[in-house]
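Take just one protein record:
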Amino acid sequence: MEKRVFGRTGLEVSVLGFGGAEIGYERAEQATVDRLLGTALDAGLNVIDTAECYAISEESIGKSVAGRRSEYHLFTKCGHASGFDLPDWHPDMLRRSIDRSLQRLDTDYVDVINLHSPPIDILRQGDAIAVVEEARAAGKARWIGCSADDVEAAYVVECGAFDVIQTSLSIADQQAITLTLPKARAANMGVIAKRPIANAAWTTSNRNEVGGYSQIYWDRLRELDYDFLITGEAVDHLRQVLQFTLGQAGVHVAIVGTKNPERWQMNAAAAASTPLSPAEMAAIRDRWIAVAAEDWVGQR
């Protein structure tokens, strides 16, 4: 699998990373997680991304691949209380959450600890940033980052505190292309694209079959009405959607989650497929510029 140098961290990351939300929230069987992560690592994937609030995700990952720790880069997030008796973003809660994540993941350190979509006032106040800086200094994380979109993402790349940004980017979520990617490249930050296939919202004709921000993507895609999604095979649609995200200058790794080992194979094939031509890239981008409303901001 293709590798890219992850900004100033110098890590070599696979262009396709595994997102741990779905296996956590949907409480995937441990045997399924073992098969999924085992085959992914065997195929060259070396980025696993999870979070403190993804239900059983961290524990499942730790049980599955802690014994192969040298083969992958491990990212997790903190910020939501998720069982602690302190509010979100409280510094003591963050410290306890980071330690709990290490225990769940059965590791002494993570490669990146990300703040998990903090509001702008939390970023500006600075206590949460100080906690992850403390974790880095203590060796609990090699690098620090932040999952952020819209005004928060702009602050993350401009403040100079972070090594990494994780931000939404897809055919249905393109604000980051102009808002944050150029400055992130200039600062040599690692860039993680989250939701790079727009939660596959184009695959259903029924809006009620998708939930949360997936419905926002569904609505946007209806208005964007991309020509390439109208004809052809589903596998080629996936290829073009994922390659659009991977083709953006500055993106190092795209995180895609699934609890289906067969779906992982499809994602890997799409990531390894032929990049879009400049004309194909431009057509998708031009359609967004022509149609996107001012409030089509990055989805947190």
Summary: DSSP finds 13 helices and ten strands in the chain.
